[in-house]
Amino acid sequence: MKNKRQQRILELISDNIILTQEELQNALIADGFKITQSTVSRDIKELRLIKGHDSNGNYRYICREDVSVAEQPLNHYKEMISKSVRTLDFAMNNVVIKSYTGMASSVCVAIDMLYNDKMLGSLAGDDTIFIVTRSEAESKNLVDEIKNIM
Fold first, then answer.
1. pTM
2. C-beta of residue 95 within 8 angstroms of C-beta of residue 65
């Protein structure tokens, strides 16, 4: 039953613009599935559905695999870093990045998206980002990777 339901969810979001869990739940109920909102939520997580723009520009639930390379934000994040970071350096397992005033939060989001697996956490102020890594070597590697896109 779960496999059929999840297959139907994929069909529904492929064929229709569905923006909310309630819309998805109502569509499934109309198809004869007895389903609660919490089950819909779990199915969305298991199917790794995201909200994004389809190829026609409509904002809706989509499969992560349906997002084309052009629609992925990786280049946007790299551009944000390259245009907004003024300096970066590390000491021990800490990385400090200086950005233009007011840009630290946006740059921090970009760095989190691109390098989350290389850090324990990050904190952004107005023009400064503080990142903690597991070791000095990882801090150096992170700084080197960020410098490569600048």
1. 0.53
2. no
